[in-house]
Design brief:
mainly alpha
Length: 117
């Protein structure tokens, strides 16, 4: 009697365990969950790829600077060339300063379209 009860409860427990296992797997295989899992994997892969690319770029810059230094020493040009000063232009013309010097033979024209109206 106890043997039959033991094997019956063991079978019921195995059935419940198998049913819950199969139901969980079926829920994982729904289209929504598959799409979410694919999106998470794509995001993770993108982050890993970005980290590797940033690391690679930093290595390239470091090695490039080192090689430029070596070439500068080999060629004897360790000093950086002096660059010309940056020219700055006014974004808006200042109307208070004359466009031409007084006494000049050039005529000055106003470019303000609303001046004569």
């Amino acid at each position: 009697m106890f043997r039959r009860t033991f094997w019956f409860t063991t079978g019921v427990a195995a059935g419940v365990w198998a049913t819950t296992k199969v139901n969980r797997k079926l829920k994982q295989l729904t289209p929504e969950n598959l799409a979410a899992a694919a999106a998470h994997k794509a995001i993770d892969a993108g982050h890993r790829l970005k980290d590797r690319a940033v690391g690679f770029a930093l290595d390239v810059r470091e090695n490039m600077a080192q090689r430029e230094e070596e070439l500068g020493e080999a060629l004897g040009i360790n000093t950086a060339p002096e660059l010309p000063a940056v020219r700055r232009y006014a974004a808006i013309e200042n109307r208070n300063t004359p466009k031409y010097v007084e006494g000049s033979t050039y005529q000055t024209y106003s470019y303000n379209r609303n001046e004569d109206h």
